[in-house]
Structures are given as C-alpha cells and as structure tokens.
C-alpha cells in the first residue's frame, strides 16, 4: 500500500532497515493513505500546487517549483507523496547534505489541514526514514518554527528528533499566509535514524519527558497570553510557547512579535550555551537541561 516494496527492491539484509520498512507500512496503513515516490512532471507539478494550498502563497510565489523537484529526483534526492483515494494530500522532499549521502536534509513536508488527526505527516516521515536507511543514511535534519506548538511536539516527542541549533530569521522574509510578516526563526533538529528513541517512536512509543522537581520557568505565559521572562539559572528550565502562534499573528501581531523575540532570547540563548532540549511537553513547554558549570 505504501510503496515500500519499491523502496526495498535494492535493500541489504539489515534488521534495523527491515524494521523501518515495516514501521513505515504500519504508519501508512493506520493513516489510510498510500505513500509513494514521485518523479514525473505531472506528479511534481501536483506537489507544487499542494504546497501553494497549504501555505497559501499563490502561483507567483510557490514554496518550490516542479522543475526544481524534477532536477532533485534525477540527482537521486527524495520526493514522496501521500494519497487518499487517489488524491494527493501530503508531500515531503529532501536532498543530501555533506558528507556525501551521509545525511539527508528534509526541506519541506506538508499535509492538507483537513487531514490533520490522521497521522499522515507521521507516515510520510517514516517512509522518508526507511528510504534513507536503505541508502545507508544515518541522519535526517530539518528546520521548524519553534513557536508552533504542534510541530515542536511532533518533532521532539512523536519522532524523537533532537534540537541542535537555533537559527534567527533563517529564511528571511517569506510571503505567505502562514508566516506573514514574522521573522523566520527556526530550530534545526537532527533525527538519528537508528537511535533507541527514534526506533521506539517509530514503533508508536513517543518520547515521554517528565519535568524534574526544581525545574525553573525561564519563559512563561502571562494571564493576557504574552511572554513572561523568568529565571534560567536552574539545572533544568522550562521554556513556554503560545497556544496558537498562527492565530496570534492575525489577532495580535505585536504580541506575536514579542513571543518571537522572547523565545529567540531564551531558547536561542540556552542552545547557544550548549544546553540540551530533552523533550517537549504537549501543554507547551520545552524541557531544557543546562550544562553544569565546571
């Protein structure tokens, strides 16, 4: 159903790879979608149109063009689509990063809003993981907006990827209805494909992180919904994010901008100092362990 049989055509004997392919099939079946690799011009043009719908960019500013995707597939990069009864409802693509084929950078993954709750995005990522592992790739990296709570939970808990770097205004201005006029700060995550946490997450056991007694709130939420700076000098600190930053950008752009600056200063500062994000609580908290002073 998922096109994983196409993936395993050239596979080596490998228990982790076999498990990754099996987990991909299970995830796609649970989501009720067919996931397959895409390479024809018509399929890649459909990906372009899908991304325009998701990010609401319009034809003059697509997130990616079909001709670029065509060149990427010819060069051996990854482009896949998720289909619901023949309709393209999600897509994901990535390209190799140095050292050659040692890691894959997953650039854009998106799913139609009406498909939320069916775990189509999870199925796409597991398909990408199986494809990468079949090619000897041990790590997939991508970026996400640290203010988007559901994406933080998806990346850190559901997939067990690890935040590695805070990137202020990484893409510069983006003219779409999702980012609006906000700075495009991103967190780079690294997904170590054969780590115990990743294997457990792909088997349906998300990373669960409990806050320790004595954890300090480094960034909290005020009664009015704005950011409130706290103290970041404890061994474990909590960094909060707003409930729905995308709605906040529309209803209160000034407050959304305050959140951007606050998270950049606090979470970005912690990561720059060598702190490690251990998890993300579904109620909206980054759980961060600071390096102990020597």
From TrEMBL:
SUPFAM superfamilies: Acyl-CoA N-acyltransferases (Nat) (SSF55729). InterPro entries: Acyl_CoA_acyltransferase (IPR016181), GNAT_N_AcTrfase_prd (IPR038764). Keywords: Transferase. One of its GO terms (molecular function) is transferase activity. This is Predicted acetyltransferase, GNAT superfamily. It comes from Nonomuraea pusilla.
